[in-house]
Structures are given as structure tokens and as C-alpha cells.
Design a protein that fits this description.
The chain has 242 residues and is mainly alpha-helical. The chain has a single domain, classed as Up-down Bundle (Rhomboid-like fold). Helix content is 58%, strand content 9%. The protein has eleven helices and three strands.
Length: 242
Amino acid sequence: MFPIKDDNPQIHIPYVTYIIIALNALAWFTLQGMGSHNTLEQSVCQYGLIPADLFGAISFEAREWICPANSGVGWTGLLSSMFMHGSWMHILGNMWFLWVFGGNVEDAMGARRFAIFYLVCGFCAALAQVLADTHSLVPMVGASGAIGGVMGAYIMLYPRVKVHLLVFLFVFITTFRVPAVLMLAYWILVQLAGGFASLGATGGGVAFWAHIGGFVAGAVLVWGFKNNELLAQHPCYGWRKF
């Protein structure tokens, strides 16, 4: 189940959303060598966030042995990791979700507020994943947590908007529309299932708790970041008519 678009008209040009997508693309094509094996590994080490490193759960020597390029990154990885990705599918999927949902959330906040909101959700997402596995030695990368925050805000602002979904049913491919609240509720339930299943697991994988942490942060913080004057320019897709 993959979102194609929504039936939510764009009021303003979402400059910040475009800039975030451009920065992620720039990082992928330059710092990460478009997924070239050696460059990708080095960039993940250099700019990723190692949970065990954040609160000093490992020594400098151990960190340098695990990921030499990461030595000295520490808390700055909270920011840099948001613009790194692990594969073509990773970055394309993330940027598509941001493209579908980001513009309307930016519409409701304005450019400056949305930029701050996005970064704060990314920080909250990373911290949620770190707290779920404080001793993990696997570098975390990806914009998924921050985009999870955007989706959390979207479900609060526009629950009744219809989202067009591409659905794969065995050999059949079809599309249909559902309210955003149903699509995003399904998404967070999948993340919760994956998150609880991942507890105690070792090695790399999907940072489910970052997705969950970002989503919850976005759903809560949206009330402090939304601009009621800007939101009033949108058709009413809120909760009142449910």
C-alpha cells in the first residue's frame, strides 16, 4: 500500500519541503556517492548516529574500532543522520512520502515554523530509537523519523482528506482512495508491530521506534506550530465532521 497523492489542494508553494528534498538529494549524490558501496559505508559511519555513542555507552576506542569515520560525531549525528540514507529505495521512498504529505503541513504552519517543526520531529525520532536500544552499535540514518512527524501532523490537521493508494494484490495492481486517518493509522500500527518485534534484536534493520517517535512528536507538536490563519485558507478536512 503506497500513497500516490492526496485530494488536498496546495495553497502556497512549499519552499521548505522542496529545499529539504533537495538537501537530501544533494547529500545522496555527493556525500554518499549515489549508493556506491565504499562511499555509502563511509558516509553512514561518518554522518550516522550511533545510539551507544550518544550517551557515552561505549569508549572512544571502541567507537573508533567499530566505525572509524564516526569518531567525534556524537550529538551532531542527530542532525546529519537526517539527511543520509542507506539505499536508493530508502531515499526515494522517504522523499516521496514527504512530497505527498509535506506541502499541506507546511501550508498550515508557514515556511519557518515548518522548518523548525521538521527538525524537532527528527530529533525526537532519533532519541526515541536511541532510548529503545541504548547499546546499539549500528549507525542510524534516514529522514523517516522526521517524515513520520510530518505524517503525525497531517493526521491531526487533515484526517478526512482522501489519499490515493497504489495497492499490490499478488499479481494485481489497483488504486483506491481512503481517508488519511485510515491510511496513516494503518501505517503507525505497522510501525508499532515492527517496533515491538525488533526489541532485543541485534544488527541492522528498520528503525521502527524512530518512525513511532517522530509520528507521536508530530501529532503532539502540531498544535504549537500550526498557524490558524493559514489553516483557515484550506477547505475544512478536520475532525469536526467525523
